């Protein structure tokens, strides 16, 4: 099997992941007197920052506005004066025109240093509590100066390691007619900007912060709801991608949260599920679920497997460009130079350009062991189904893949004490050869990913009579289930 070597493309720009948001806790966090008292020491006496006036909102994406952020007007003015005394360099490109200071991480000016300390220490804890995002004790801090006709056009702030962006305005009296508003855009189903739905006028000593993410808050919820949090850690994803690029395959154990996995297994026993036999016998024999008959939890899991959030996560696991927001290596190099995220207007891959030239997206011919490719113009493409395996079931080798490369996903359920001698494992071989390149054995709550090309064939080994021995330990387990999907670049 061949592997394309790509660099990581984060699902969400950040090193660590947080828990699901608890909106009922927001007001309490905003009024946390103890936290505000601890923050006082950061400014060398007195209360340095004010949080109680913060307003945290979810639309069009999660953001907050804190007027009168620096508690002391004199401190705010002194900070402005120190910043104006710095050296600024002109930045000008297609996206922006402004003057920017150097990174402020090492500056020793007293009010700059005090602000940095307050942001890194006390404010970070408050911000993490409000957003329910675990934040690292690091911060990128610089100052931008906007002059007449300067501009910063529509963009996202997605950069490696960034979870929350903020702006502290130290401006003179300002009117909307002066320009310089912070415009917040709604987005379409592909997370591309549509319309300005909120416009914030710069105001003296006001801090605005917002969550940085290439996908919607709802998509984040899908990942946090289902996946073991270890796999949402950016360092873990980088390690997974490195291993995948070396071997073209990986097995992720305990992939789902235990409680979610248990609910799936219980639902799979539901007697109301309708199973249809898949043939013809010279190619395959197994049973596939009719989706309309599935309990809600199974429908939701299939929705999860087809979600754009999972396309992005799989892109990050593998380095493959499975979603248009997952940049190719060339796009990442450009983004690093320009400071913009993949998926920005004007960014395109050769595939996307070809689709636009042809006037319709390329719909790959999916293998005939999966029922339907879900995709359309500009949308990621995958195909998959829920399968049931028991004694006598199998698939045979046949060449049905028209695309050059594909990523196979297998997720297993109900495999307690399954022995490879029973069969039921997925075997990969080179076209025209008998020797196995790779074997994927059924294993509970495991996600298998395999990257293959047109010269790689696969089959599920015939499940033989030995599998009946398992009934002694598990009387209700005549076989196992898997969710079988194929994802296309």
TrEMBL record:
It comes from the Eukaryota. Residues 60-228 form the Prolyl 4-hydroxylase alpha subunit domain. Residues 1-19 have a biased composition (Basic residues). Residues 1-22, 328-377 are annotated as: Disordered. The keyword Transcription does not apply. GO terms for molecular function: iron ion binding; L-ascorbic acid binding; peptidyl-proline dioxygenase activity. InterPro entries: Oxoglutarate/Fe-dep_Oase_C, Pro_4_hyd_alph, uS12_prolyl_hydroxylase. GO terms for cellular component: cytoplasm. Its cofactor is L-ascorbate. GO terms for biological process: regulation of translational termination. Keywords: Dioxygenase, Oxidoreductase. This is 2-oxoglutarate and iron dependent oxygenase domain containing 1.
């Amino acid at each position: 099997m061949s592997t394309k070597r790509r660099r990581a493309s984060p699902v969400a720009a950040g090193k660590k992941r947080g828990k699901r948001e608890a909106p009922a806790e927001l007001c309490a966090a905003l009024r946390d007197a103890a936290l505000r008292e601890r923050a006082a020491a950061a400014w060398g006496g007195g209360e340095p920052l004010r949080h109680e006036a913060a307003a945290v909102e979810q639309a069009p994406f999660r953001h907050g506005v804190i007027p009168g952020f620096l508690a002391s007007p004199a401190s705010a003015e002194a900070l402005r004066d120190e910043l104006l005394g710095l050296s600024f360099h002109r930045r000008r490109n297609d996206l922006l025109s402004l003057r920017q200071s150097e990174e402020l991480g090492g500056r020793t000016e007293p009010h700059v240093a005090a602000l940095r300390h307050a942001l890194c220490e006390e404010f970070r804890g408050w911000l993490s509590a409000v957003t329910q995002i675990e934040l690292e004790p690091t911060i990128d801090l610089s100052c931008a100066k906007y002059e007449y006709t300067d501009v910063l056009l529509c963009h996202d702030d997605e950069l490696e390691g960034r979870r929350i962006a903020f702006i502290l305005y130290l401006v003179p009296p300002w009117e909307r007619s002066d320009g310089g508003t912070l415009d917040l855009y709604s987005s379409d189903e592909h997370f591309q900007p549509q319309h300005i739905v909120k416009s914030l006028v710069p105001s003296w000593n006001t801090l605005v912060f917002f969550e940085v993410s290439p996908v919607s808050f709802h998509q984040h919820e899908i990942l946090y709801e289902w996946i073991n949090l270890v796999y949402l850690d950016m360092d873990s994803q980088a390690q997974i991608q490195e291993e995948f690029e070396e071997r073209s395959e990986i097995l992720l154990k305990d992939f789902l949260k235990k409680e979610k996995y248990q609910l799936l297994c219980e639902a799979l026993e539901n007697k109301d599920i309708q199973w249809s036999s898949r043939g013809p016998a010279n190619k395959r024999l197994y049973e596939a679920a009719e989706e309309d008959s599935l309990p809600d939890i199974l429908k939701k899991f299939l929705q999860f497997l087809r979600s754009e959030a999972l396309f992005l996560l799989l892109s990050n696991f593998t380095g493959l460009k499975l979603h248009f927001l997952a940049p190719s290596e060339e796009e990442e190099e450009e983004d690093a130079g320009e400071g913009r995220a993949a998926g920005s207007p004007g960014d395109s891959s050769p595939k996307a350009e070809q689709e636009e030239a042809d006037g319709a997206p390329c719909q790959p011919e999916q293998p005939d062991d999966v029922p339907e490719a879900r995709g359309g113009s500009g949308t990621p493409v995958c195909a998959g189904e829920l399968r049931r395996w028991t004694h006598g079931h199998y698939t045979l080798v046949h060449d049905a893949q028209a695309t050059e490369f594909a990523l196979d996903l297998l997720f297993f359920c109900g495999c307690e004490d399954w022995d490879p001698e029973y069969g039921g494992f997925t075997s990969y071989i080179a076209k025209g050869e008998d020797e196995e390149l790779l074997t994927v054995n059924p294993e509970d709550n495991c996600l298998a990913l395999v990257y293959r090309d047109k010269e790689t064939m696969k089959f599920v080994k015939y499940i033989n009579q030995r599998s009946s021995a398992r009934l002694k330990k598990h009387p209700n387990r005549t076989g196992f289930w898997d969710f079988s999907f194929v994802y296309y670049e």
